[in-house]
Amino acid sequence: MANKLSRRDFLKAGGLTLLGAAGVNAVSNIVHDHDKGNTKVLAAPAMQHGDHDGVMPNTVGEVDHEKNGFNPTDILTDFDYGEVSTLPNGQILREYEIVAHNKNIEVVPGIEYPAWTYNGRIPGPTIRATEGDRIRIHFSNGSNHPHTMHFHGFHPGVMDGVPGSGPGGNVLPGESFVYEFDAEPFGLHLYHCHSFPLARHIAKGLYGAFIVDPKVGRPPVDHEFIMVMSGFDVDFDDANDFYGVNAIPFHFQNHPIQIKVGETVRVYLVNILEFDLINSFHLHANFFQYYPTGTSLTPSEFTDTIIQGQAQRGILEFTYRYPGMYMFHAHVTEFAELGWNGMFEVTE
Amino acid sequence: MTQQPNPTPRFTFRTLVLLLLPIILLAGVIALFLSTGGGLDLESAAPVENLNIERYNLERNMIELHVRNTGPEAINVAQVVINEAIMPFTITPNTSIPRLGRAIIHINYPWTYGEAYGINVFTSNAIGFGVDIPVAFETPQLSSATFWGFTLIGLYVGVIPVFLGIFWFPALRTLGRRTMTFLMAATAGLLIFLGLDTLAEALEFANEVPSSFQGIGLIGIGAVATFLLLDAISKSQTDTSGDDSQRRLSVAFIIAVGIGFHNLGEGLAIGAAYNVGEIALGTFLVVGFIIQNITEGLGIIAPVLRDKPSIGRLAIMGLIGGTPAIIGAWIGGYTPSPFLAVLFLAIGAGAIFEVIYEIAKLIQKDTQREAMPMTVFSGVLTGMMLLWVTGLLIK
Fold first, then answer.
1. Global pTM?
2. Containing domain of residue B87, as a range?
């Protein structure tokens, strides 16, 4: 408001001061009477929980999961162990077919985003193997941009999937490449496209989780969930407009994850959010054991909130004591209200 | 004349056909273009959309946006984000808004008095259209209290200063002819300043008018039409009565009309400003405001100082000049519309410039009897400087 002052501004000022003198109080009192009359009913989807006259951020409507080709709830437990065979040396071989292509994804109800995907879904398939297995990825590029697959983990330079590392570092449209390496070390990792411009290639949807189980295995639990935290910059201003877990904002707010009292839950949590420096995870009414990067079988922390920078990830383990609806969300609250908010529905 | 085969042109069937021929051909060209694209590749990478958020309305726990689609095609409203939170909303009459169609978006939102809000409306093509609420407070609704409030604003803004200026009439009457000419020149100076100001305001509002309504063109239409209409009225009056005093009286009335339109525009601006919360405080501004606008009353009476207009006539001129501020405040306060603001301000500018033209003619008549070039020069400059300096003191 402290910009140029025109005669009109000056008149406004004068006039409004006079209105003040003339009794704005009377004005606002009258306006208050209008409150009672017309309370409008919202077309908000289900799952407005808690305080009932409280308003909660949410999207209007539901995205078409079928048309999108994936459902965030299904992704939670969709672990891809690949086509399994045994190599002559006795090593387990896991083979995967992964295609990158352009695909319009309805990221929030009513808005289709021209995404780039691995196998038509965001996040891409959750690749899961045991420490020491041989991973062989038949990657083909069905889009009209060069793409790659860059895995976090041990592997030779030519398998790194970055420009300059050989043919695997720049897979052109219509071409393909086979990435092959041993799954090491054990832990929770990720993969993503590493083509230039990198931020855009990741933000458009080319990322996924890569789980390497320790040889001894992790203690058995009742539920294992994969949660990939990301966002969408739908207007291409290099700032996210929407946030979520497994791509779709508010999905788990509108479709709570069902668990039972006393059940053990393990969450594989990956942050691949572009443009924002950090992301976080906060669990309500509970605490969890946290295993950063999952590379140790001993938890580093017992907490209810953790922060992850880009490409950081970790494993959470917890159990609910009481039944009820429990929120989990980014404690970067801005992200929460722009979609990164979900619920656990805990029953007896 | 005698050489011409058709001395009296007649409208024949042939004329009709010849008139229609280009139109029929035009229709053909358009049809061809629409069906083939005319050889041009006009596919755009992203759809062109334009959503004008014309105004907002705040009630307790509710924000209402009035939007208009000013883009070339229909728009679908997909999501609404308020201060970095996606909010559920309802929209009437329909999520899909046709070209130039309007819709109202309701959002239940617990906004807080005095805080600022940024709203982003996303269309289905992921194009966001934003509006800022700099200071949130309940939008005044039509009621006797707000009605009286806006009336008071208009009274202070327009009526009182104009009448205060008119009260100089008895004193100024005692002045000599040369001083009266000086005052007329000063009035012309005042009006030139006001006219430029009105035009600038119209241009400012024109930026807020949806592009399809062509704000700048609207200014041209409003200003030129008003100028020519007032000129025509003034000429027809001169034709019926050659009486100089009658002529001066009609000029005074036209000045009152011009200033009236100017004040109408100001009323609109103030009403609209009140609605969007642009409230600046400081009572000294009010005092300065009355000082500046008192000159408007002076301007109205300047041409008739040497005559004896009745008090009733002076009062009517004061009302013509002042009350439109009240009407403007009502319109601006209840249905702020940049379109109307541009139109009224353009009419005001046209009226003011026509009045300057009339005064120039009156001054010319005076100077024909007695040359006083410096009086005119100093008068016009004094008028302009008066507004400029009072503005300087206040701002």
1. 0.73
2. 51-133
- Cα A201 to Cα A193: distance, rounded to the nearest angstrom: 6
What is the DSSP track for A73-131?
A: HHHHT-EE--EEEE-TTS-EEEEEEEEEEEEEEEEETTEEEEEEEETTBSS--EEEEET
In a domain, B26, yes or no: no
Q: How far apart are CA B78 and CA B121, in angstroms?
A: 8
Q: Cα separation of A95 and A139, whole Å?
A: 11
Judge whether A249 is closer than 8 Å to chain B, CB to CB: yes
Residue A243, min C-alpha distance to chain B (Å): 10
Residue B129, domain CATH? 2.60.40.1890
Reply yes or no on whether the pLDDT at B157 is more than 50: yes
User: Which residue among B133, B164, B193 closes a domain?
Assistant: B133
**What ipTM does this complex have?**
0.75
Mean pLDDT score of chain B: 81
The least confident of A63-67, B50-54, B135-139 is: B135-139
Q: Which chain B positions have a beta carbon within 8 Å of A23's beta carbon?
A: 145, 149
Domains of chain A: 65-213 (2.60.40.420), 223-347 (2.60.40.420)
User: B78, B102, B133: which is the final residue of a domain?
Assistant: B133
Note whether residue B15 is domain-resident: no
Residue of A5, A7, A24, A35 best to disrupt the B interface, most CBs of B under 10 A = A7
- CA pair distance A192, B4, nearest whole angstrom: 86
Task: Examine the domain organization and report whether B70 and B188 are in the same domain.
Answer: no
- Chain A CA closest to residue B137: A28
The rounded mean pLDDT for chain A is 86
Minimum-distance CB partner of B62 among A12, A23, A40: A40
Tell me whether residues B128 and A59 touch, CB distance under 8 A.
no
Residue B47 corresponds to which tokens in the numbers above?
Answer: 């759809």
- How many domains does chain B contain in total? 2
Q: Is residue B101 part of a domain?
A: yes
Model confidence at B344: pLDDT above 90: no
B32 lies in some domain: no
Per-residue model confidence (pLDDT) at position A180? 96
Q: Do B157 and A28 touch (CB under 8 A)?
A: no
Which H or E element spans position B66? strand B62-69
Q: Which of A88-97, A214-223, A281-290, B365-374 comes out lowest in average pLDDT?
A: B365-374
Nearest-CB residue to B266 (from A11, A44, A339): A11
Q: Specify the higher pLDDT residue, A307 or A39.
A: A307
